[in-house]
Amino acid sequence: MSAAAAAAADEQLRKQLIQQLFDETGGAGGSGGASHDTDGPTGGGGKLLLHARVSEERESRGVKDLLKVSFQSKDDDDDDDDDDKGGAGKGKLKQRIICLSIKKGTKLRLSKVKQERFGSLSIVKYWGLDEIRSIENCEQEGQVLVNLGKIYRWTFEDLQRKNKFLETLVKLCRTHTKRMPKLINIEEEASDDAPKQDVVGREATTKSQSLAASRELDEIEADAPDAQDGEIAAAMDAMLQIDLGLVLSDFEWQANGDAAALEERLLSELQALEAANVHDIIQSETQANIVVNEIEQALSELSQIDDWLSHYTSLLDSMGQDVHQIETQNKGMQVMSTNQRLLLSSIEKLLGSLRMPGYALEVLKNEPLDDPNGVNECEMAITKLMDIIQAKFPDYGDMAAIKERKALLQGYANAFAKRLCEFLSDYFQKQAEMYMQDKSRASQKGSLKLYAHESIEQKLFKFRNLLRWLKDIDARGHHELQMTYVREIVRPYRREIQEFIEVLKTQHTQRKAAQDELDFVFVGQGVSVSSAASNAIKSAIRSGTSNLTGERSGTLSSGGGTSGGPGSTGIKQKLESWRPYRKKTARSDDASSIATGDDDEGKPSRYDLGSLKNSSIAGSMASMDLSPEERMTPDEASCVQAVGHALLKMVHIMVREQNFIIDLFSITKGVKGMGSGSLVSSAVEEEPMSPSGPMSLQSWQDDLGRPREPIKDPKAQKRVQEMMEGIFEEVREQLLATVESGLRHDQSYSVGMMVHIEFYSKEYANTSHAFVINLLESLQKRASTIFEKFVVDQIKAIEETKVTLRKRGGILPFIKTFPRFVDRMEMMLSNWDGVARKTVDKAYSRIIKSMFETLEAVAQQAGNDPKAASDEKDFLNIHILNVENMHHFYAEVRARKVPGLESSVKQAKVLYDVNMEAYCKVVIRKPLGKLLEFFEGIEGLLKTGPAEEVSFHIQYSKSALKDIIRKYPGKEVKKSLEALYKRVDKHFTEEEGLLQVVWRGIQEEFTRQLRRYEELIAKCYPEVSVRLDFTMDELLGFFSELARDH
Amino acid sequence: MGKNQAKKTDLPLHKIIMVGSGGVGKSALTLQYMYGDFIEEYDPTKADSYRKKVTLDGQESFIDILDTAGQEEYAAIRDNYYRSGEGFLCVFSLCEQESFQHTQEFRDQICRVLDDEKVPFILVGNKADLTSDRQVSTREGELKAKEWGCPYMETSAKTRQNVDEAFCKLMRSIRDRKEAKGGGKAGASKAPKKKSSCMLL
Fold first, then answer.
1. Which of A136, A476, A524, A860 could pair with A145 as two cysteines, CB 3.0-4.6 Å apart?
2. Is residue B5 assigned to a domain?
3. Taking CA atoms, what residue in B is nearest to A809?
4. A851 phi and psi, to 5 degrees?
5. Which of B11, B61, B80 to mutate to test the interface with A (most CBs of A within 10 A)?
6. Calculated CA dihedral for residues A1011, A1017, A1018, A1021, nearest 10 degrees
7. Distance of residue A878 Cα from the nearest chain B Cα, in angstroms
């Protein structure tokens, strides 16, 4: 079969199909069974989109039949498989034609057409597109499984057609169904054939666009691709506009039918409709009424509910208000209860701080104050009391009850203060009385003891806190107590110090014995000096004259004898035991000092006082490492020490007493207005190191002896001064007097005193101990005065030597004394470099001046002495005196190396040299006599005239020269030299050993003279061959001979 | 005062004479010994006498030192004081050979004047501190001393080296000689011999 023939056959089939489809559309739509052979004109209002021959197989069982789809397949007489499902046609292939068509006004359809035996076609069945449930493209070529409620297997003869069918169907389903059928195995294929699908789609739309253009469009496939899709809708609209015909046909109206019948039918239908309408309306009214009633009922119920609600709301409102009110009230009550609690605690606190235990008040009233526990109890009680009284109640301070309470307590406090005052006043008296009664405190005869008041300190120590309190609470009572204390304590002090001073005096009296040590004073034998000191010395010298030639050490014991009495102190021993003031020095010479000490101190109080002394002495020694005594020999030391230590003791006692007073009465503690806090705490805060703080008695007492910082508060300072004066003023005068009388025997001690005083002054300078400083100043003044007097006396003694000197040769006594004086002074100073040093240096220069003047005067006297002058008219004595004395002074003083004396040493050296030279010149006049005069005359002439003229003078003529030379032959000269040597030997004492020095000077002078004479002879008498009778060599020979002879 | 005179005369007195050329340090040695001073400046001495109490081997005695002029115009003038000397401290400067040579003259004169070769004599080389200026060796000094039969010492007046030793040695030999003679001037001194070192007061 050719392609053209096939196409033509296909075209034929297509025409038939169109006719069949669109003619019997209505019948087919109406009932399935009716078949109308209507050959209506083609294009009666639809379009065949596609058709294809298939062989159909009902897919009901698993039987697999290969179906051959072909246009000329053998006929199947199984005509209707749709109706007859369970027919025998199962498994058989039926030849069918599947069409896709669109009809005006309707939807797209899928139709199955059966070709009858005679070529006529009949629609077996049709489906809406929506009925397609699934489309499956089978793997077998040409087969498609379509589920249309039942599953049909269609095998296409033509593959191309099958594809076209599938594409078109899928496309239509996509665009025109609500529910897309399930596609199985199609998507890929569709996408593979995408261009074809497009073509199909276009073809389909194009065909549905218009009836008229459908065929042409059908054939034109590839062209006009664009702008066709939108036209499908337009085609549909166009079909709806011409829908009336279809409507009519729905009413089975035929144009050739009866209009009237139609009208009637229409009217009846209208009526029926209206009736139904009215019926409906009537029917619905009752229901509406019911509804309305219901609604009304509902409304009334609602309003009822509403009423309830508003009622509840108002109830709730009022309840809310109540709650709020309750809350407010609750809060108020809470505040109130808190306040009350606070009030309660405040009141409790107040009461607590105002509570004063009864036993405490009882303690204050009755506790005995003379035992430490009682004092402690009282302290605690009073602290408590004061805490309450002074407690600050910032908010309720004005409260009457509090004030009242405080006043009451204040009353207790005052009462206690009064009791304390009375007690202490009495107590002071008792203590003082006890000291007075205590025999052990009475000073032993000859022992220098001065006790501090340790036991009083100890006893009063415990009251210091109460006294401090008293100071705050009752200043006047406090002050009165101070006065009482002073009044009482002064009694034992007075007695003790008096005794002490008495002992001191005795010791100094004993010191008188050691007159031999006074060899440093410038007093000559038989001198009568008016001053007391000199008198004492004088008498001593007189009594000791017999011993003066003895050994120095020997005189010590003999000196002891002079003071008389078998019980007198052995000085040596006293000096050995270095601290004579401590122990009464021996009654028995050989008693060991320790044994003696024990003897003397073997009293009831020994233990107590012994420890005190040890401590105080140790303290004093520790503070005095520079003290002068240590450098001195024991005997010297003892003298200075006695005074110095007495002073130290006194000073120590005063310092201690002052510190004690200050601490006991808290004088330096500032009074803080209206009373300051409690006892202990205030003490601590003011002065943490203060002894009145929580300090042990021991450490406090240890500290008492130490000097303290100056008191800043002038009032307190004045108060302390007042008390100190009260206690010690009397003593002070006594001490001053004692010092003076003590020094009377050896005023050189005044230097030692000055050193001591200076030492202490420095130590106590810038301390609070104004009284001591003042005392030291007075003593200093006194000592200076005494020293001044001493120096004046010395000078007087030196000057009096002029008158009293018997022997007018040799070393003068005061020159001999001076080095010892220097020694004495230096010993007293012991390298002290203070005011005392300056004072002594001044004294040196005054004394030296006096000495040199006196020496000069004595020399003059010696020169003028008629006895001496007969022989020594050339005042040789003056030179001898000067030479020897200056030599002595120079040698001795220089050896002492006192810086202040250096200039005097030089001065002495100059005087020595000058006088030595002068002596030599003068002394040779005698042996040379006229010879010397002659040549001196010539020299005198030479001053006025020329040498040549000398011989023209009668006295100096050549013959005169010869005469004079003749008078001095060598022998004579030699003899006179010998005589001269003897004279010179007599002139100078062996003591100074100056003979050789002087003789050497004389020899030198001699040779000088001789040389000069020879020169003068040669000069003045050149033409004369006159010479001296002896030559220089001869003269030297004389010297040598002289030397051999002696 | 008689007392002091008595005291002094009771004690033995040893008279020493310082001899030697000018500027060798006789006065310096003397002053150092006497006062512990050292004076740099040179002031030629004519003659000076010094006396001092010393303790020699535990016995107190006086030393009398006559410090003489080194540059005496006429040697004969020395005769007299040589006569008064009991011992001689002959000083030369270790820094000056000439002064060492001169010691021979002094020695000779002393021996001549005293007519005594055994007089207590000590040769002293002074200025030992100036080591760099030294001109006389210790050996030379020792040889000379050996020749004279006397001790030799080197001293420094500046540093006080051997100063006390020299004086003490001389004093000791004076004392020994006096004791050997058994009387003479210092008859009073009967102190036991002690060889402990000397002490200065």
1. A136
2. no
3. B1
4. -65, -45
5. B80
6. 180
7. 19
| Least CB–CB distance from A1039: residue in B1, B3, B76 | B76
Q: How far is B96 from chain A (nearest CA, A)?
A: 27
3-state secondary structure of A940: helix
Q: Are strands A121-128 and A134-137 parallel, antiparallel or unpaired?
A: unpaired
Q: What is the pLDDT of residues A679-723, one digit of tens each?
A: 443 333 333 334 444 456 667 777 777 777 777 777 777 888 888
On whether any CB of chain B is under 8 Å from the CB of A910, the answer is no
What residue type is assigned to position B190 of the chain? K
Q: What is the pLDDT of residues A834-884, one digit of tens each?
A: 888 888 888 889 999 988 888 888 877 776 665 554 455 557 778 888 888
Would you say residue B82 lies in a domain?
Answer: yes
The burial class, CB within 10 Å (0-12 / 13-18 / 19+), for A215 is middle
Contacts A887 to B, Cβ<8 Å: 49
Query: Would you call B5 an interface residue with chain A, using a CB distance cutoff of 8 Å?
Result: yes
pTM of the full structure: 0.57
Whether A816 has its CB under 8 Å from any CB of chain B: the answer is yes
Number of independent structural domains in chain B: 1
In whole angstroms, how far apart are CA A186 and each of A58, A163, A577? 21, 10, 148
| Cβ within 8 Å, pair B84-A995 | yes
B4 lies in some domain: no
| Residue environment code for A958-983, b if the CB has 16+ CB neighbours within 10 A, otherwise e | eeebeebbeebeeeebbebbbebbeb
Comparing C-alpha atoms, which of B62, B16, B59, B17 is closest to residue B195? B59
C-alpha span between A34 and A38 (Å, rounded): 12
Domain containing residue B31? 12-189+196-200
Which residues in chain A are closer than 8 Å to B34, comparing Cβ atoms? Answer: 891, 895
Amino acid at B63: I
Would you place residue B18 in the very low, low, confident or very high pLDDT band (cuts 50, 70, 90)?
very high
Q: How far is A1045 from chain B (nearest CA, A)?
A: 9
CATH number, position B92: 3.40.50.300
Q: Judge whether B3 lies within some domain.
A: no
Query: Which one of A520, A553, A1000, A1039 makes the best mutation probe of the B interface by having the most chain B beta carbons within 10 Å?
Result: A1000
Whole-number Cα distances in Å, A503 to A247, A301, A635, A734: 172, 136, 18, 13
